[in-house]
């Protein structure tokens, strides 16, 4: 029989001084209660209770055993309550693993706000650009690039989408010219990850459909933050993720290129080992992280809309300037006549 259950039964019998009373309190039959005590005595090789027709009393061994068993059961109950509390209240160390650049540029604010909200949780963050086994390495959650997923036993949830952006500094473009089509990249030194970290061939989607080019790397690095530094130094045209260069684009330190073309998106996911019995620290961190990046996507989406609108406005303005110039050239060749004014309205973003 179950030894812990037998201990519990013995304590109840000793407290109530009755097999019948213990059976009623534990919702067991008297025969089962009697058997539990008999099994304990057989295991220990000693009598724990003196039985008479009128009463039960503890033997000397029974008194010693009862005292120690109470401590064991109290400790066990305390451990169980602690485990239950940890599963329902966010507490303890939360082991997180994430790619280096994404962790440095995008994860830190989310971890900071989570730690402020749940002070009893201690985030333990590991940054690694390698394949990670969450279960084998003991991580609670991992931030991963979807295309690098290899393990079927983990659960994943979409976190955000990364956009690869072709960019360069204004000074570089002023000196070397601005590429407007993917094929133009072949005339520029490219700053990109080496082949084993994503391949040299780039697949763009644009007005003419799918376009494949193989830019020539001026410098290759296995860390995109290093490539960002090279780009900011004006060493060439870089292809970098949006979460890395968002502030550079907003400040004008880097200029986005090939606005009519798109590279494949990168789905960033949060992964964790199991849906069952998920500790509160893991469950709350996942929900917090998803909400954080959903909020971050809203202004980013608005920024992209404004950028597209500005590009359209610039194109229309340029077309208007060309029309005016053509009209002026016509005036010098022909006799003046009544002109017709044409107004080009810039699109508005509500």
From TrEMBL:
<dbReference type="InterPro" id="IPR036388">
    <property type="entry name" value="WH-like_DNA-bd_sf"/>
</dbReference>
<dbReference type="InterPro" id="IPR005119">
    <property type="entry name" value="LysR_subst-bd"/>
</dbReference>
<feature type="domain" description="HTH lysR-type">
    <location>
        <begin position="1"/>
        <end position="59"/>
    </location>
</feature>
<comment type="similarity">
    <text>Belongs to the LysR transcriptional regulatory family.</text>
</comment>
<dbReference type="Pfam" id="PF03466">
    <property type="entry name" value="LysR_substrate"/>
</dbReference>
<dbReference type="Pfam" id="PF00126">
    <property type="entry name" value="HTH_1"/>
</dbReference>
<keyword id="KW-0238">DNA-binding</keyword>
<dbReference type="InterPro" id="IPR058163">
    <property type="entry name" value="LysR-type_TF_proteobact-type"/>
</dbReference>
<dbReference type="InterPro" id="IPR036390">
    <property type="entry name" value="WH_DNA-bd_sf"/>
</dbReference>
<dbReference type="GO" id="GO:0006351">
    <property type="term" value="P:DNA-templated transcription"/>
</dbReference>
<dbReference type="GO" id="GO:0003700">
    <property type="term" value="F:DNA-binding transcription factor activity"/>
</dbReference>
<protein>
    <submittedName>
        <fullName>LysR family transcriptional regulator</fullName>
    </submittedName>
</protein>
<keyword id="KW-0805">Transcription regulation</keyword>
<dbReference type="GO" id="GO:0043565">
    <property type="term" value="F:sequence-specific DNA binding"/>
</dbReference>
<dbReference type="InterPro" id="IPR000847">
    <property type="entry name" value="LysR_HTH_N"/>
</dbReference>
<keyword id="KW-0804">Transcription</keyword>
């Amino acid at each position: 029989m179950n030894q812990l259950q037998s201990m519990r039964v013995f304590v109840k019998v000793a407290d109530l001084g009755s097999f019948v009373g213990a059976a009623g309190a534990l919702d067991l039959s008297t025969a089962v209660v009697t058997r539990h005590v008999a099994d304990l005595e057989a295991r220990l090789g000693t009598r724990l209770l003196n039985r008479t027709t009128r009463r039960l009393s503890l033997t000397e061994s029974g008194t010693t055993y009862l005292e120690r068993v109470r401590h064991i059961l109290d400790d066990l109950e305390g451990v169980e309550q602690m485990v239950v509390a940890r599963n329902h209240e966010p507490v303890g160390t939360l082991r997180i693993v994430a790619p280096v650049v994404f962790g440095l540029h995008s994860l830190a604010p989310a971890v900071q706000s989570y730690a402020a909200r749940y002070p009893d949780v201690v985030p333990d963050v590991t940054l690694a650009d390698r394949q990670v086994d969450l279960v084998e390495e003991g991580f609670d959650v991992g931030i991963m690039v979807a295309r690098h997923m290899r393990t079927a036993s983990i659960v994943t949830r979409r976190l955000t989408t990364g956009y690869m952006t072709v960019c360069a500094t204004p000074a570089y473009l002023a000196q070397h010219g601005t590429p407007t089509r993917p094929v133009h990249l072949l005339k520029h030194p490219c700053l990109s990850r080496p082949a084993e970290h994503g391949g040299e061939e780039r697949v763009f989607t644009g007005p003419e459909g799918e376009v494949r080019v193989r830019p020539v790397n001026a410098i290759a690095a296995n860390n995109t933050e290093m490539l960002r530094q090279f780009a900011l130094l004006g060493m060439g045209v870089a292809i970098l993720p949006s979460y890395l260069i968002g502030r550079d684009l907003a400040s004008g330190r880097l200029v986005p290129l090939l606005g009519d073309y798109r590279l494949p998106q990168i789905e960033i996911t949060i992964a964790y080992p199991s849906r069952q019995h998920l500790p509160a620290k893991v469950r709350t961190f996942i929900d917090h992280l998803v909400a954080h990046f959903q909020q971050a996507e809203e202004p980013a989406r608005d920024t992209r809309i404004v950028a597209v609108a500005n590009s359209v406005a610039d194109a229309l303005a340029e077309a208007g300037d060309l029309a005016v110039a053509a009209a002026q050239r016509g005036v010098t060749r022909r006799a003046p006549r009544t002109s017709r004014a044409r107004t080009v309205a810039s699109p508005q973003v509500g």
